[in-house]
Amino acid sequence: MTTTIDKNTTLHPQINPDPEQQDAKDINEGRANLLMAQARKIVSLQAEIEANQAKVDQLKQDILDTHEPGTYAAGDLKVQVREGSKRLNASRFKAKYPAEDYPELYKIAPDSTGARKKLGEDALAGLFDQGKSTVVVK
Length: 138
Fold this sequence. Notes:
Blueprint: E1 3-6, E2 9-11, H1 19-66, E3 70-74, E4 77-81, H2 90-96, H3 112-119, H4 121-124
Antiparallel strand pairs: 1-2, 3-4
């Protein structure tokens, strides 16, 4: 129903939205605002972490440059300088000890990429362990 006051002014009845729809809209807007605030805070904290991590890395490098492996007293703290871990270089190992001549030095492991291609995800369902879900903010 419309009401005309004069030839230039017409009043239209105001339609009140469904309260449940309005509540859902408010909830969605609230969730979107919360997500935006959380994402911005994550980005801010990550920037602080990166800045501080660079400082920590430089301090550790300074210690490595001036101290041999060992344990050192630093006031009420203890600083350990450790040798880097040793990992077998697979290419050099294979060149020196080929699998054909030294099969006892090798073990067979499943190729998950190859298995997915050949068998498909459905055939492998239930055979994978899944890690914890993560959040990435860019």
